[in-house]
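Person: Please work through this fold.
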Amino acid sequence: MFQTNTVNSDVKFNAELQNSFNGVSDNHSIPLVDIDLLRRCLSKMKLKKCPGFDNVSTEHLIYAGIDLHVHLCLLFNMILKHSYVPREFAYGLIIPLLKDKHGDQTRIDMYRAITLSPVIAKLFEYVLLECFGDQLSSDELQFGFKKKQTTKYFVKKGSRVYCAFIDASKAFDKALHYGLFVKLLKKNVSPSFVHLLEN
C-alpha cells in the first residue's frame, strides 16, 4: 500500500520537475573542471580502499600522471555540459558483511551490504561537491551529516547535548526522489546540476 502511494506521488513530482525545467532559466554558469580542481578533489580521496568492478583504485588515478588528469577533466566537463552521466558510474559491486559473527549466519537480516563503486565515479562526486557544494546548504537546525557538527562545539564547551534518532527502515527506497529534485530547484540550485542528479 505505502509503496504504491510513494510511486504515484513520485510520478506527480516527476511531472512537476519536468515543468520546472521548462519554466526555469539557469542563471548559474556551468563550472569548469581544471587540473587544480581535479587534484584538489583527488587529494580528498581515501587510499588503500577496495576498487570497484573495474579494478581501478584511487592510487591508479593519483599516480597515473598529467595525461590521465587532462582526460578526466575533459570527461567531467562533458558530463557537466550535457548533464549526462555514463551508465558505468551507476554500477557497483555489492559485498555482504556479517553484522554479528555470533548470530545466525543463515538469516538475511544478519548482513548489511556495502557497495564498491567505480573510483572515477567517486572522484566525480567530489568534483560535484566542490562545484555545487555552496548551493546545497541545509537548515541550521540539522546537525547530522555536516562537517562542523554542532554537538562537538557544545561538548568542547562542557555542555550536554541531547539527541533523538529515527532509524527509518529502507528510507532510501521510500524517498520521493523527484520530490527532492523539485525542492532543490525551489532552493535555486542550478537546474543543470539537478538534471545531472536526475540522470
In short: Residues 2-23 form the longest helix (22 residues). The chain has one domain: 2-198. The beta strands are 93-98, 111-116. The mean pLDDT is 84.
